[in-house]
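Batch job 17 of 40 flagged for manual review because the log was empty.
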Amino acid sequence: MEVAKKKNRLLRKQKPFLKPSSCISKKRFRSDMSSKILREALIQQKEIEDEARKEDPFSSIPEIGVSDDDSDFDDEYVDSLDAGFVPETDEIQDYNDYEVEMEMLEQFESSMLLSERIVNKIEKAEKVSAEQKPQMDNRLVDIYKGIGEYLSRYTSGKLPKAFLSLPSKPYWEDALYLTEPKKWSAYAMWQATNIFASNMSPKRAQRFYSSVLLRRVREDIRKNKRLHFDLYRALKKSVYKPQAFNKGILFPLCKNLDYISGTCTLREAVIIGSIIQKVSIPADHSSAALMQLAEIEYCGTTSYFIKLLLDKKYALPYRALDAVVAHFMRFVEDSRVMPVIWHQSLLTLVQRNKYELTKEDKENIERLIQHQKHHMVTEDIRRELQNSRNRGEKKDPTFIPSSYHQKPIEEDRFNYPIVPMEEE
C-alpha cells in the first residue's frame, strides 16, 4: 500500500513554487499604475482645496478645535478672538448680489417664449442679410439697361443670356427695375413671363406677377379697351404657378391694391375670368381661392370670380363650402339690392353643391332668398334646395325630384304625321 501511494505521488504533476514572470510583471504594473493614479488624485484634490480656500473669505481664520477631555475651556479667550475679528461684509454682500442677479437672469431667459426667440433670430438674420446684400457693379448696371432697350423693341429672336439667367440671381428685382418693364413690348412680356413662371419659386413669381405683369395688363386694358394677344398669353402662362397667380393677380384685383384704378372693372373681370374658365387650376388651389374671396369685402366682380370657380365643379372640402355659405349669409340683413351676378353665383353654389349642404345651411339660404329676391333666379334656387338630400344622408332609390316629373305625352290619333313609304 505504501509503495502504491508513493507511485501516485510521483505521477502527480508538481505545481511550480513560483508564479510565472508575466503574472508578477502584471501585478507590478498594476501597482505602479494605481500609485500614479492615487498621486494624481491627491494633487488635484489639493489644488481644489487651495482654490476653495482662496475664494472663501473665512479661510484665513484658524479653526478652534474643542476636545471632549478639555473641560476647562477659556471663554475669555474666545471673546477676545470675536472682538478682534472684523468680517468683510461688503465683499460678501457684493458676492451674494452677483449670485442673485445671475439667478434672476437665468429665470428670465428660461421664461422667454420660444416664439420671441425665433422672432429675434429672424430679425437678426434679416439685418445681416440686408447688410450682406450683393451690390451690382457699374458693368452689370450698363448691361441690364442695354437689355431694357433691347426688350422695348423686341418682337422675335433669342433673348440675352443675362436675362435668361436672371431668375436664379439674388439681385433679380434690382436688375428687373433697370430694364424698365413698362417699356417692354407685349411679346417681350410674354417671353419674360414664360421664363419667370418656369424657373422661379411661387413666392418670387408672385412678386413678379403683382409688380410687373398685373400692372401692365391693367394699363393695356385701360388704354386700349381690350388686351393684347401676347399679354393674354402671358396671363395664361402665369397660371402655371397657381398659388402665385392667386396671390399675385386674382386677390390684388379683388382687394383693390393696384395703383391704376380704385376697383376692378367689369372688363378686367371678364378678361381675366375667361382665363380661369379656360385653364385648369388644381382643386386645392381653387378651394383656397374660394375661401379667400369669401372673406374679402364684397364687390360685384368678387361674385363673378366666385361663380367661375364654382362652375369648375370641383368636389370642394367642407371648410371651403362653409366659408362660401357664410359669405352669402352676410347679406341676410343687408338693405342693398344685390345685382344679378350675386344671385347667379348663389344659384351656382346651390346647383353644384346641393348634396353637400347641411339641413341648417339650406334653412339659412331659404331665409336669405326671402330677404334678397330676384324675379328670375330665386325660384330656381328654391327648387334646387327642396329637391335635394342633405349632407350625410343616403340616396333614396324611390325618391324622384319634382323637377324630373314630365307631363304625359298626349297624341292625337286622328292627326298622325305622314310616314314616307318606299316605292315598290
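Reviewer: the log was empty due to a logging misconfiguration, but the result itself is present. The first helix runs from residue 2 to 11. Unflagging and moving on to job 18.
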